[in-house]
């Protein structure tokens, strides 16, 4: 039985023509050729690369969409499972086979699961991308919970159904086994799952904002502003933090007569979205804490966040640290108020992802699907629900 080996690398190389791709990934072609000829491994591999590469185009900010990473993970697992576990070609998989894949994904064997997420390949100068022997198709969730959440399975079904439709259009296969999986209840597989929201609700998020707004020391103004951005604008951390290509600036927000507007990478390019009125109070407070004028000047280029020493931009790790500090202060305040420990408990395991998930869930109820999707832009909702798939 062939060992586990990564199949797909980054967005920059996924769309290379077949000879160039295998030249850039020495050892991969030999690995694929080790499978039985009847599995049609090479044909399916090429079709899968073409399918995944359709998600690899950068968005308006020059970033690779999360849908590329999600589709790569799901299809890679499907192919390896079909070839190694079922010893079947992907185009011959039926409905019962796909049910087996869902069940396998709920509890993969230990040698398929890594302790942490690792790079698939490592670049070696004058050699190419070499497979990382420590890589595994699955990894343990950061929160220590189970791999089994309903949103994870919804994401698997979504991408697999699209992939089989793609294969049908290319006349590689005749049926789509993932299209019928909706008849199969996955609740039984998710009984012991621990969703990423960790029990956190928007009430907990609003308590963080309430406590942060009551503080007068000035130490937590950045954290308060970050939580307000996530709570009211649903903005992901990657757009708030520094990246190698850019340092986010306050020009992200524009004052208009009726409201504050901000920019979102939407399905039709960059879109201007109005912020809720309550966000304006947090933005104004934050500007004053930075010594900036209440009304921003035209073409303002002030960094969105600064370090305690005034250096432009914060990394994701730095943002997490300052928010966790504010969350800890909130926990202490709620305990002093006599709040029940079981009510406070979700805050003790809160993370920026769970804060955002709780905010998205509240937005769906309060503002509806259209308004929520407008804020999310090109993101796929199910992929937001399950970080690290």
Describe the 3D structure:
With 389 residues, this protein is mainly α. It folds into two domains: 11-189, no CATH class; 202-380, Orthogonal Bundle (hpI Integrase, Chain A). Helices cover 46% and strands 7% of the residues. The chain has 14 helices and seven strands. The strands form three sheets. A three-stranded antiparallel β-sheet has the order 5-6-7. A two-stranded parallel sheet has the order 1-4. Strands 2-3 form a two-stranded antiparallel sheet. Helix 4 runs antiparallel to helix 5 (66-85), helix 8 (202-214) packs antiparallel against helix 9 (221-233) and helix 9 packs across helix 11. The relative contact order is 0.12.
Question: Can you tell me the overall shape?
Answer: elongated
Chain oligomer state = single chain
Distance between the termini: 26 Å
* Arrangement of strands in the largest sheet: 5-6-7
Q: What is the percentage of strand-forming residues?
A: 5-15%
| Low confidence ranges | 142-147, 183-196
**Largest sheet, strands/sense/barrel:** 3 strands, antiparallel
Name the helix and strand elements from N-terminus to C-terminus, one letter apiece: HHHHHHEEEEHHHEEEHHHHH
Quickly count the domains. 2
What's the total number of strands? 7
The structural class is mainly alpha
Helical content stands at 40-55%
The number of helical segments is 14
Q: What integer is the average pLDDT?
A: 84
The gyration radius over C-alpha positions equals: 23 Å
């Amino acid at each position: 039985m062939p060992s586990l080996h990564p199949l797909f690398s980054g967005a920059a190389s996924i769309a290379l023509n077949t000879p160039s791709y295998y030249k850039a990934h020495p050892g991969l072609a030999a690995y694929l050729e080790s499978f039985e000829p009847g599995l049609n491994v090479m044909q399916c591999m090429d079709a899968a690369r073409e399918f995944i590469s359709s998600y690899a185009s950068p968005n308006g900010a020059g970033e690779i969409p999360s849908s590329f990473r999600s589709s790569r993970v799901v299809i890679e697992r499907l192919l390896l499972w079909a070839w190694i576990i079922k010893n079947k070609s992907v185009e011959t998989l039926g409905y019962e086979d796909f049910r087996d894949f869902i069940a396998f994904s709920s509890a993969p064997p230990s040698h398929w699961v890594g302790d942490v997420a690792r790079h698939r390949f490592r670049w070696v100068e004058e050699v190419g991308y070499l497979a990382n022997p420590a890589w595994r198709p699955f990894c343990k969730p950061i929160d220590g919970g189970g791999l089994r959440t309903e949103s994870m399975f919804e994401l698997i079904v979504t991408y697999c159904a699209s992939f089989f439709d793609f294969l049908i259009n290319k006349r590689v296969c005749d049926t789509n086994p993932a299209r019928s999986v909706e008849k199969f209840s996955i609740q039984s597989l998710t009984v012991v799952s621990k969703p990423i929201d960790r029990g956190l609700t928007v009430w907990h998020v609003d308590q963080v904002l309430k406590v942060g707004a009551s503080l007068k020391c000035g130490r937590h103004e950045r954290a308060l502003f970050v939580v307000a951005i996530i709570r009211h604008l649903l903005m992901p951390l990657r757009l708030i933090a520094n990246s190698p290509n850019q340092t986010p600036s306050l020009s992200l927000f524009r004052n208009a007569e009726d409201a504050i507007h901000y920019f979102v990478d939407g399905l039709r390019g960059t879109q201007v979205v109005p912020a809720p009125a309550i966000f304006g109070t947090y933005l104004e407070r934050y500007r004053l804490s930075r010594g900036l004028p209440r009304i921003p000047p035209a073409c303002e280029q002030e960094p969105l966040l600064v370090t305690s020493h005034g250096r432009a931009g914060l990394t994701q790790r730095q943002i997490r640290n300052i928010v966790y500090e504010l969350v800890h202060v909130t926990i202490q305040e709620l305990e002093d108020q006599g709040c029940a420990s079981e009510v406070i408990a979700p805050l003790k395991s809160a993370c920026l992802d769970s804060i955002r998930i709780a905010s998205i869930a509240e937005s769906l109820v309060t503002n509806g699907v259209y308004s929520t999707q407008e804020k999310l832009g090109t993101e796929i909702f199910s992929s937001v629900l399950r970080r690290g798939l």
